[in-house]
Amino acid sequence: MSQRVAVIDYQSGNLASAARGLALAATRQGLEVEVFITADPDELRRADRIVLPGQGAFADCAKGLESISGLKAALEERVAQGAPFLGICVGMQLMAQRGLEYGTTPGFGWVRGEIARMQVGAERLPHMGWNELRFEPGSHKLLDGLKPGDHAYFVHSYALSGGRPDEILATTDYAGDVVAMVASGNRAGTQFHAEKSQEVGLTILGNFLTWTP
Question: Is 156 part of the annotated catalytic residue set?
Answer without folding.
Answer: no
